């Protein structure tokens, strides 16, 4: 008889890269869950109840107990549904490294990209581009196999999904070139492998909508700066 893992609820929004991390992990592991689509301009009572501190998606509720923050949720999912498609390596050192790089993506890469793309001030944008290229270089050197997780998608790949799907959409929307195939051949190829993985592909939102969203965001930042 299949093990009963209890009820799983997952709160996200279709365009959220952080929510997609959780969806990718759940889908890779074949977890059954009920999905709640949030309107972030009008957050539900349940979202505010389950994530009163950050009031953000994603939130995972397992057997009535809520968890927030995508990287925390990914590790929890891996511990509970461990044997099916493991996301973290077995060895403590490798496991610690996977945590290091996942946090590096959130702490260094994403802020630099946002600065490069969505700052009105030209010098700040250039600084953001330099910081982004430096951060991407570290990841390019760290990528040794098909995926950061080896032959299959792991924690770092899921954390880096922003670079595979959202960054190219941002580049198109604001006319920026960061993750190019000549500068970052391994990372570029990885991005294609990752977004074409059948499980990942099914979770991703429509690219044109995401590009449109970023174009509007960019236009409003530029308009506000005038
Ligand atoms: N560090 C958080 C970031 C989550 C996040 O920024 N979520 C956004 C959607 S992409 C959100 O819910 N924003 C709502 C708000 O800021 O009010 C994570 O990793 O889960």
TrEMBL record:
Keywords: Transferase. Residues 6-85 form the GST N-terminal domain. One of its GO terms (molecular function) is glutathione transferase activity. GO terms for biological process: glutathione metabolic process. It catalyses: RX + glutathione = an S-substituted glutathione + a halide anion + H(+). One of its GO terms (cellular component) is cytoplasm. Its EC number is 2.5.1.18. It is an enzyme of class 2 (transferase). Residues 91-213 form the GST C-terminal domain. PROSITE patterns: GST_CTER (PS50405), GST_NTER (PS50404). Gene3D superfamilies: 1.20.1050.10, Glutaredoxin (3.40.30.10). PANTHER family: GLUTATHIONE S-TRANSFERASE, GST, SUPERFAMILY, GST DOMAIN CONTAINING, GLUTATHIONE TRANSFERASE. Belongs to the GST superfamily. This is glutathione transferase. It comes from Cajanus cajan (Pigeon pea). The lineage of its organism: Eukaryota, Viridiplantae, Streptophyta, Embryophyta, Tracheophyta.
């Amino acid at each position: 008889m299949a093990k009963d893992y209890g009820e799983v609820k997952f709160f996200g929004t279709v365009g959220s890269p952080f929510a997609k991390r959780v969806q990718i992990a759940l889908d890779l592991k074949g977890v059954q869950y009920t999905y709640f689509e949030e309107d972030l301009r009008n957050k539900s009572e349940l979202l505010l109840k389950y994530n009163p501190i950050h009031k953000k998606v994603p939130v995972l509720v397992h057997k009535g107990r809520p968890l927030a923050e995508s990287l925390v949720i990914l590790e929890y999912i891996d511990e509970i549904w461990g044997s099916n498609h493991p996301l973290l390596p077995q060895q403590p050192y490798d496991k610690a490294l996977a945590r290091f790089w996942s946090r590096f993506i959130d702490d260094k890469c994403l802020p630099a990209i946002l600065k490069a793309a969505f700052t009105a001030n030209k010098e700040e944008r250039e600084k953001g581009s330099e910081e982004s290229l430096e951060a991407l270089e570290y990841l390019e050197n760290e990528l040794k196999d098909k995926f950061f997780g080896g032959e299959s998608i792991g924690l770092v790949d899921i954390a880096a999904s922003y670079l595979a799907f959202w960054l190219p959409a941002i580049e198109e929307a604001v006319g920026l070139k960061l993750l190019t195939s000549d500068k970052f051949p391994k990372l570029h190829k990885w991005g294609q492998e990752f977004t074409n993985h059948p499980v990942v592909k099914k979770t991703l939102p429509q690219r044109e909508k995401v590009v449109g969203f970023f174009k509007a965001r960019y236009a409003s930042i530029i308009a506000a700066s005038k």
